[in-house]
Amino acid sequence: MPILASLPGLNLLSSLPSNPPQNDTTSSTPSPSPPIPIPKYPPPRSRNPKTNVPRSNPALSIPHRRSNYRKPVQKGVISTDGDRCVIVGENGVSYKLPGAPFEFQYSYSETPNAEPIAIREPAYLPFAPPTMPRPWTGKAPLKKSKKNIPLFDSFNPPPPGKKGVKHVEKPGPFPFGKYPKEGKTREEILGEPLKKWEIKMLVKPLLSDNRQVNLGRDGLTHNMLDLIHTHWKRRRVCKIKCKGVPTVDMDNVCRHIEEKTGGKIIHRVGGVVYLFRGRNYNYRTRPQYPVMLWKPATPVYPKLIQEAPEGLTKAEADEFRKKGKSLLPICTLAKNGMYASLVKDVRDAFEECPLVKIDCKGLQPSDYKKIGAKLKELVPCILLSFDDEQILMWRGRDWKSMYGDTSSNLVPVKADILSGIDNSAKSSDDSGTPDSQRVVSSPKMMSLWRRAIESNKALLLEELALGPDAVLDKVEEFEGMSLAIEHSCEALVLSSEDGSSSSSSAEFKGGSYSEDENDIYSSDDIIDDEYYDDNSFEEVDPSIPLGLLPVDNIAERLRRESK
């Protein structure tokens, strides 16, 4: 470093030259090109373009279920399309088509009785238009097929052994010598009422069969009508299994099924219904209904829960709701369950408490609200709350007991020992003497006691001062009398003029022991308007054989004396 500093004209702290020397292009070698070309990306797009975006198709802006579309409606026609129109009435929203036998609805059995106050979508008919041009597909339409496919005729079904054809049941059943005939009205298609043996023959093969129509929370829907006729195409009886909300009122479901399909319910067990198509049913002449392409949005109905229900002030209603929080529910409803006994359970619960609560945990809100609306009409009652997935009901001020006046149901304490009434519920009369002590029994228990006494199945001991031996004698005497009344049957003894007698065998009211050969077609076997609810198709044998009762000994003695 000292040597460099001593050199003349050398400045170690001088800066670099401002203009660097130019490189000699002739002497420098060109730089090698990269092996992969550098990609050229387009310029980035601006996030907020100022260009005008074209408007979307108006068909995509139709209100849907999650939109806040609400249009108030009144009773009458709200939309028309030529001869087809949408009507709002007592049955909710219905659709009237030219030539239709009745006004179409999405659900026939689960429509509330209240009139809707608004609709959630524009009033369109959920059916295909009457005329629709063929859309252009780039190809000419297909030529008409030369095959002449015959229509399915129930009166002329294909032979049983035909290849590729499923089993088809013939019309009927018919008595000997009778054949199917064309019918137009419901009575003509159903034909003569079925006998009990015919019902057994039709229903018994379907008891364990899983070919059925499932009826759920929407009840009897419009498209289910065509499905039932599809089942009737090959079978005489259609099996319908009902679950969920519609089972609260099974009579209503059965009535709508018979009205809309034209069939006849011949057997019903719980939520399972067996629908007979008729003796003269023909699939070729069945009523054909248009298919509903989508489920219409449910209209808006008045609120079920009011702050101050009828007969209560707001303070009283809040007090009832507060008490209902600590009230135990009478039952818990399962999802897709069978609720046929729910109305009876609620009525029985109102006999003991003015408030009744039902637990509905696990059910959809729309389901237990529909159940509450049905109970409000069938019980009847007043709905107070749907909080915590529970239905809270009040029986109302105009409630009347099913068993009469409860204040007059006073019976002696000693006479209530057999009924299981707790002795702690004793109450004294105005006199206050021990002999006048009385207890208040429930109206249901008093009704059962009264019915048992009238049918000689119970005995009221008026002489309360009887000893143990006297009471035992009374009980033994009553036991023999009640058994004779319960197990005896009508006996008829006929005597002739010449002294000989002949007695006919004991004859039941149902005619099961009749010796008439034509009894199988008697009027006793015809089912008229009642549903056949017998769960068992077999005869029930009596618990005591004939000939072992005192009344049989009396008949035998009279028979011997007449000889």
UniProtKB/TrEMBL annotation:
Residues 192-288, 310-406 form the CRM domain. One of its GO terms (biological process) is mRNA processing. Residues 1-76, 149-181, 496-525 are annotated as: Disordered. GO terms for cellular component: ribonucleoprotein complex. Residues 50-59 have a biased composition (Polar residues). Residues 1-30, 496-513 have a biased composition (Low complexity). The keyword RNA-binding applies. Residues 63-73 have a biased composition (Basic residues). It comes from the Eukaryota. Residues 31-46 have a biased composition (Pro residues). InterPro entries: CAF1P_plant (IPR044599), RNA-binding_CRM (IPR001890), YhbY-like_sf (IPR035920). One of its GO terms (molecular function) is RNA binding. Keywords: mRNA processing, mRNA splicing, Repeat, Ribonucleoprotein, RNA-binding, Transit peptide. This is CRM domain-containing protein. It comes from Gossypium barbadense (Sea Island cotton). The lineage of its organism: Eukaryota, Viridiplantae, Streptophyta, Embryophyta, Tracheophyta.
